[in-house]
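Box S1 | Example of a co-folding query
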Amino acid sequence: HVTVTVEPSLQVAPYACQRRTPLDHPNPALVMALETLAEAALFAGEEARGLAFTRAASVLRCLPRALQGTHELSGLPCIGGHSHRVLQEVLEDGVCAEVEAVKQSERYQTMKLFTQIFGVGVRTADCWYREGLRSLGDLQSHGTRLTRQQQAGVECFEDLAVPVGRAEAEGLACLVLDAAARLLPSASVTLAGGFRRGKPHGHDVDLLLSHPEEGREVGLLGPLVAWLEEQGLLLYQHSQHSSYTTTAEPSSSCGPLDRFERCFTILRLVLPATGTGVRAWRAVRLDLVVVPHSQLPFALLGWTGSRHFERELRRFARHEREMVLNSHGLYNMRQGTFLPASSEEEIFQHLGLDYIPPTLRNA
Ligand code: GTP
Ligand code: MN
Ligand code: MN
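Box S1 (continued) | Returned holo structure for guanosine-5'-triphosphate
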């Protein structure tokens, strides 16, 4: 007799914040193809097109099993015609000609290189490309004017291209916690960003500083940064004052930028002892964000990511709930009130969403 196994049909909710998306998933080639096109669209300044590819890629990221064929795409949300053709080609041929052409193109490779520099966004990279610049060497030989941040980014480029490991990130979190607790007893430090989602590597380390007593966190960052400087650990830093006011109209339309006091740094990460002649440190990016205790669940949710998961949470809040979510709070527009929360779980409850733990937010 014959055994027929029928794969259960794939069910995917329309918003990424309604889905459980683990780090590892069974469709890496398909996701990579779509994410390459998303990146290329952003490099071309076509944000809507980029977002469409990102949404399609994110749907494939959450599938519990490998996609069997394009017949399975019809029930899935967010897969447009272009994404459909790309997926079909990868499923049938293993690669997609358009994606391969993008990856080989001088434009894509140069934009990828330039936007990887700390302090360089798509617009700057695009200007440089149109001026004919193609390499880091070109920036120097053409005497391209760089901000202090970009200068540091170029100087540390090779180090910063090395991924930060989890143990290194946790080591930095401990170092910062020790220093913070000496300056302010009971200060807390939370490792957010990709590491909180379970990623083994990251391009930087994102730390949230707080204190269980509201207001005590004020004035912590300056002395903390000064201490890092005294230790000779700071290679670069720029700080931003808090610009948060409770009277301001809450907003999620100004992008992911929040108004916390913060410091963007490049730190000298001291490496375990090695043989003679080997440099004993490496430059790494560290972001420090100071958060009042009452806003900590919102900041934690906002700084854990992924970037797409955050964008979808805000879109869901606005369009499905008439609420504004950002890293400071949740505002109910119909009632004209802020909804306080003492945990991430409570924020999901306010939004009427099932709780998604950090390791399943890799949308
Ligand atoms: P890797 O560092 O590459 O491992 O990825 P990551 O997910 O940690 O990305 P990144 O460090 O760029 O950002 C971490 C999270 O913080 C992301 O979800 C971003 O949306 C969020 N984030 C980054 N910058 C800001 C910011 O200025 N304000 C707010 N509110 N969120 C930010
Ligand atoms: Mn990060
Ligand atoms: Mn960061």
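Residues 166-183 form the longest helix (18 residues). Strands lie at 164-165, 188-191, 201-202, 205-210, 234-240, 261-270, 281-290, 323-325, 330-332, 337-338.
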